[in-house]
Amino acid sequence: MKLLSLNTASVQALPTDQGEVTSGIRKRSRSGAVEVRALGLEGDEQADLSVHGGLNKAVYAYPAEHYPFWQTVRAQAKAATWDEALLPGALGENLTISGLLESQAFIGDVLRFPCCELVVSEPRFPCFKFNAVMGFNQASKLMVQSGWCGFYLAVLKPGHLSAGEDFDLIPGPREVGIAELFRARTSRKR
């Protein structure tokens, strides 16, 4: 399992179909070591702390394995050209990872990096800001249908992270899976 890209953003204006809002969803790749604190990555901001950030949602991870799907559906929706690659962080994630999917992650699992430990805390639930950053109004619906939501992480052991690092998955109690929790919570909303 590998950390492919480490991504942060400052809060900025984001045009949406509900008007302009502030958001920290437009993450960009960082080079070098980035400090990881209890409330997240150094240099990363969240606009709406009622639904983002905090101790249980300090860091957001998303599997790179889903990127080809999003690139294709954006092109089909005419939100991008067919050859326009999605850059790491495009889905609002702090960590673009490989080797760990939602179906393999459980609440309480620990991602052990060389200088930091993060614990899986909950799935990400998309909103209208995700539609805006992806460029089409069905993006949130597609995330719910696919179950490719990524997951939030709490900081168990502060330290620092760098893109390119390998990490190990230390199983937690393995009672509640990210995929199952996401399906249960999103099926109630439909």
Name the descriptors:
single chain, about 190 residues, alpha+beta, M1 Pyruvate Kinase, Domain 3, 8-stranded mixed sheet, 3-stranded antiparallel sheet, 13 strands, about 30% strand, globular
Produce a short descriptive summary:
The protein is an alpha+beta fold and 190 residues long. The chain is built from four helices and 13 strands. The longest helix has 12 residues.
Radius of gyration over C-alpha positions, nearest whole angstrom: 16 Å
Number of domains: 1
Architecture (CATH level 2) name = Beta Barrel
State the secondary-structure class.
Answer: alpha+beta
CATH class: Mainly Beta
Large-scale geometry: globular
- As for the CATH topology, it is M1 Pyruvate Kinase, Domain 3
Helix and strand sequence: EEEEEEEHEEEHHEEEH
Biggest sheet, spatial arrangement of strands: 4-1-8-7-11-10-9-13
Helix content: 10-25%
Beta fraction: 25-35%
Runs in which pLDDT lies below 50 for 5 or more consecutive residues are: none
Descriptive overview:
With 190 residues, the protein is α+β, with helices and mostly antiparallel strands. The chain has four helices and 13 strands. It has helices at residues 67-76, 128-134, 139-146, 178-189; strands spanning 2-8, 12-16, 19-23, 28-30, 34-37, 40-41, 59-63, 95-98, 110-113, 116-123, 151-157, 159-161, 168-170. The strands form three sheets. An eight-stranded mixed β-sheet has the order 4-1-8-7-11-10-9-13. Strands 6-5-12 form a three-stranded antiparallel β-sheet, with no helix packed on it. The protein is globular and about 40 Å long.
